[in-house]
Please model this.
Amino acid sequence: MISAEILSSEIQSELFSVNDSVKDLAILTAREGVVLLPSTLEKKNDTSSRRDYGIWGEGRATLVGLITLYSWGKDLVDIGYDVSPRYRRQGYASLALRAIANHARDSCHLRTQAHVGFGNVASQGVALRAGFEVTDSIGGVMIFTDQAGL
Model:
């Protein structure tokens, strides 16, 4: 089972070693994977609001990635995700994206999107497997919108 929780400072350093390809959290793009979320995800009017959650392997023994929510106004969040290279292609990202999108919609009444670069085929597949569809594009970025519950 995959679960998520807000990252504390002590596990952020672990995340950097797990996700060795990502040294700067600000460059993360659409990511998925979360089953258990704390009640801290709530509507925010602060457009700079950001929440980071860990993506954990079975038994919560291994941190395998990160999923991030960026608040874009009071009713919309953008979801970014990254999974350590050694844990990719195992379904972590899609499961986490679907779970966090469900939580955002059902518990917080938020719409969810993921912005994915045209060249990022792996992240496009994650979004599609999680039930997101391409609804727009801006520059070199495709906008995937959660279609579940519509």
About this structure: Confidence is low (pLDDT under 50) at residues 1-48.
